[in-house]
Amino acid sequence: MGLLLKKKLDEQDIKARVSPTPREASKSCGISLIVDEADLTLIKQTITENNIEIMKIVSLARKEWKYRST
Amino acid sequence: MADYQQMWTDLGMDLEKHDVLCEVLPEAFGGVYLTQQDRPKGMDFYDFVVSEIHGVRPAEMIQHQKEGGKVFGTFCVYVPDEVVFAAGGIAAGLCGGSQFWVAGGEKVLPANTCPLIKASVGARLDKTCPFFLIPDMYVGETTCDGKKKAWEILAGEVPFHIIDIPQKKRDRDIAAFAAEIQDFIGVVEKVTGNQITAESLGEAIKLINNKRRALQRVYNARKASPVPISGKDALLVTQINFYDDPARAAQMANNLADELEDRISRQAGVFPDNALRIMISGTPMAIPNWKMHHIIESLGAAVVVEESCTGTRYFENLVDESATTLDGQIQALAERYMKTNCACFTPNTARIDDIVRLADEYKVDGIIDTNLQFCNLYSTESYLIKQALTERNLPIMHIETDYSEQDFEQLRTRVEAFLEMLRK
Amino acid sequence: MVVIGVDIGSVATKGILISDGIQHKTIFPTGWSPRDTSEAVIAQLLHLSGMERQRVTRIFGTGYGRVAFDQADKTITEIKCHARGIAELLPEVRTIIDIGGQDSKVIRLGERGQVVDFAMNDKCAAGTGRFLQVMATTLGLDVSDLGSAEDPAQRLAISSMCTVFAESEIIGLMAKGNPKSGIVAGLHQSVGKRVAAMAKRLGIQEPIAFTGGVAINQGVKRALEEELGSSVMVSEVCQYTGALGAALLALENV
């Protein structure tokens, strides 16, 4: 589902990045799409139009990704 | 998006400890991968795999087992996956690439052991990785001393078959390895309950060869200048190929290769035109070890090829598909796998030839020869490699490191100094 | 044109300001804030030269603390900076041996003074200024007095490679009444041996320059020459080699 939504967004040139779900959003691992707040209306529309199931939309403060070793 | 907690519980995983890794992963992945610009769209699939890294593929493997199938965990590119798939099994590369698992390994292994081995043992003993808990059998091998003895310890935990890898490459060693493959066939047949025929083995050879061809296409695209994909991304593709379903892996890699070829035709690159082109050679970088690539690429140089088991040594050379009898196929497998130039062989001058050839094919400005800490084989070999490359005026620097963050700044300084040297 | 080069080492931060061919230099202990110290160094250089900040065209930074150096227009590794500094001070040199506060390195130079190869020891205190600092404290001496405190004729061998164990070893030697001057000579030999081994691994080409704060120590110089079997050149401003290189690179805007 996550990849399907990504594909639909790509078709409309809406920026999205596939990512493991950030901890602040949810404790379980899984796929998330990181998007710009500004694009939210269009994205919600895309989700409804294509019957895509999502768990939730979470707003996170923009932050610098810093290197962290695994 | 599925919740895998139940699956993990059923596997007997230590959920609390596992959660610590889950916590680090999004940031670790983000910091390395999502800071990149203009990544190929084909990378979406691989990002997705990482997002669900302990979910999707393990679920597939468990389903396979529910349907009566068997899963084999492997640790070395010398193990012929073809045999497992020919018997209807699933083969998956198990490799510890994270500092997270090292402590678990250090409970039973000496501290001065390669971190990859420590992490592999730790992942199993601490029960913090589903891939390590799913297999019905582990397939070990006699490559380096560290692994050889570590398998003895792990054998107490899970059924193990050890393949004896020769140390030389004479005709009789290739014959000996063919005999090992024959034995391995017997073992796999017993575990799976399926017979391996010339037909099924022939199919499996084609299946794995196709994966190799697809990866070769992706790598070929990196010969272009400007390079259309980052080294980090290419490494991730290779790492995931180790355990993903071979048919899907080939398809995804081919999709990516298509996109990269298109980028090349448009001269679209992900690094500036004058970015230095670097080869990394040496010991494998198991997922999620992205350390060296990250250091090099965040300094503005592009890693354009990896001469390692998580690189060209994984997919170069195809198995001859013309054999029609089991004996012929086993011979073809033995011949192909014995072409892999690992430092556990002596002599290993063919690796020097590989490095020189790849430096030319990928138009490399410099080589970083890196091995995991405590690996005597590769670190000793680096002396002759440096000698040979210096004679040919190919700049090379040797780095020995582990998975931790501790030496990050020192490594940055060395790599930066090496890049400064190359720029003159 | 006015330029500044700052080498932020683990122990000391060195700065050089070049203005119309005239050099001013200053040195501060790095302390715990490389950022604050580098600012202090710049302020001092401006004071010494009578310049205003706006007149400085470029500031280049090097050394382990360079990542925190906000005011730098560019940061360059110590390897390249030392090479540039030596090309200026001792242009015929083909090998640089640098012993700093917490690392030591060997740099091989080509015909044009460019870096052709290098090796670093940055993981272990042995063979670095840190080793000498720890031992000096144990002996009740100032590290700057070590050079003149040695007596090679009474040299005692220190067998421990590791700084921590070596410390225990010299405490034992002192307890047995051995002369401090002999112990100091032994310590210098340890450092010399360690660094010479690294240099031989990389391959040495003469002439050799010895740079870094530890090069001021005559005893280490003697020990190094003995272990290498060659003489080494030490510039009067050996500790400023990196900062000088950074300043010159700033001038050339490389």
Structural write-up:
The complex is a heterotrimer of chains A (70), B (424) and C (254). With 70 residues, chain A is α+β, with helices and mostly antiparallel strands. Chain A is 29% helix and 14% strand. Chain A has a domain at 2-49. Chain A contains 2 helices and 2 strands, in the order αββα. Chain A has a two-stranded antiparallel ribbon. The model of chain A has no long low-confidence stretch (mean pLDDT 79). By secondary structure, chain B is α/β, with parallel strands linked by helices. Chain B has one domain (5-423). A 4-stranded parallel beta sheet of chain B has the order 2-1-3-4, with helices on both faces. Chain B is globular and about 60 Å long. Chain B starts with a helix and ends with a helix. The mean pLDDT of chain B is 96. The model of chain C has no long low-confidence stretch (mean pLDDT 94). Chains in contact: A-B, B-C. At the B-C interface, helix 19 of B face helix 2 and strand 8 of C.
What layout of secondary structure does this protein have?
The complex is a heterotrimer of chains A (70), B (424) and C (254).
Chain A: H1 2-11, E1 16-20, E2 31-35, H2 40-49
Antiparallel strand pairs in A: 1-2
Chain B: H1 5-11, H2 15-34, H3 43-51, H4 56-66, E1 71-74, H5 81-86, E2 90-93, H6 102-106, H7 115-125, H8 130-133, E3 137-141, H9 145-154, E4 160-163, H10 171-192, H11 198-221, H12 231-241, H13 246-265, E5 277-282, H14 291-298, E6 302-307, H15 312-315, H16 326-337, H17 349-361, E7 366-372, H18 376-391, E8 396-401, H19 408-423
Helix pairs in contact in B: 7-9, 10-16, 11-12, 11-13
Chain C: E1 2-8, E2 12-19, E3 22-29, H1 34-49, E4 56-62, E5 74-75, H2 78-89, E6 95-99, E7 104-109, E8 115-121, H3 129-139, H4 146-149, H5 163-175, H6 180-202, E9 208-211, H7 218-228, E10 232-233, H8 241-252
Parallel strand pairs in C: 1-4, 4-5, 6-9, 9-10
Antiparallel strand pairs in C: 1-2, 2-3, 6-7, 7-8
Helix pairs in contact in C: 2-8, 3-5, 3-6, 6-7
